[in-house]
Amino acid sequence: MAEDLYSALGVSRSADQKEIRRAYREKARKFHPDVNKTPGAEETFKRISEAHDVLSDPETRSQYDRFGENFRQYAAADAARSSEQPRRSGGTRYTWSGGGAQSVNWEDLFGEGFGGFGRGADHTAELEITVEEAYRGGRRTVQVASPYGGAQEYTIDIPAGAVDGQRLRIAGAGGAGADGQDGDLLVTLRVKDSKRYRLSGADIETDLPISPWEAALGADVSVPTPGGPVTVHVPPGSSTGRRLRLRGQGMPRRGQPGDLYARVKVVVPRTLSNKEKELFEQLRDESSFDARRGS
After folding, report:
1. Contacts of 56 (CB under 8 A, 6+ apart)
2. Residue-wise over 106-131: b if at least 16 C-beta within 10 A, else e?
3. What's the short name of a Pfam family annotated to this entry (predicted)?
4. Cα distances (angstroms) measured from residue 235 to each of 146, 221, 246, 292
5. Helix, strand, coil in percent for the chain, rounding step 5
6. Mean pLDDT within 166-181
7. Three-class SS string for 227-263?
8. Which pLDDT score is estimated for 93?
């Protein structure tokens, strides 16, 4: 069972917004993957980021308190039953869509500006990116749709080596402030596996198809990586499932980049020429190997 979001931040259920912000920033500094390389630190960072996203927004906090971990599912069903229009106050969770163009200023996770008296509320959103986008970084132009109607477009600079759960800030794109200082839009990056790559922390895994003779005899083969093709040596006798480690070819991280693991996948030709069939039959007759022995 997932840890309670309040427990993840180390605050009580009656904690006010200042306590939540203070607890989040203290823990984010401690567990951010760029500064904490211990096992489990990145997962902890994701969880406290999620806790802050939910609990710093009065609306989502209320839903969490009411429905628990599955609050999004229940809140959506509850909202569908209600015709009440949302109020323009407090934090709001947005969704991304479309394209457009407007330059924005970014501060990193530890920047100032979480708000004060009279300042507009911070709003939150999530943006899905692929492993390749997270590796290379880049620019995404997106459109933020507000539940109050209308939309705003922004160009987002995604840093190379972006982390799942990492939060980016669009200054002044949140709620209108009573003192003229608008809140910010806080964007949480969600890194999705692509068809070719799977991400585990800072490490990347990909399949490496090889022929039966490359598996049996060994070979030097090219492996596609997000940073470009790399040659790896497949040792003789490699079977499907064997993982070959390419040190430093994973996600670029400050200080210690991740590794890339190429998982061997032996692929047999669908059709054989007469000569190939003859050679395989000869191998069958000559070999004493039993693939099922000891399995």
Report:
1. 17, 20, 21, 24, 91, 122, 124
2. eeebeeeebbeeebbbbbbbbbebbb
3. DnaJ_C
4. 55, 11, 14, 21
5. 30, 25, 45
6. 77
7. CCCEEEEECCCCCCCCEEEECCCCCCCCCCCCCEEEE
8. 45
| Low-confidence winner among 42-56, 122-136, 171-185, 214-228 (lowest mean pLDDT) | 171-185
Beta strands 260-266 and 243-246: pairing type? antiparallel
213: Cα within 13 Å, side-chain hemisphere = 5
Nearest to 241 by CA among 217, 207, 264, 222: 264
Q: How confident is the model at residue 205 (pLDDT cuts 50, 70, 90)?
A: very high
Beta bridge partners of residue 234, listed in sequence order: 219
Q: H or E stretch including 41?
A: helix 41-55
Distance from C-alpha of 116 to C-alpha of 18, rounded to nearest angstrom:
9
Residues 6 or more apart whose Cβ sits within 8 Å of residue 186: 53, 122, 123, 124, 125, 167, 168, 169, 170, 174
pLDDT at position 242: 97
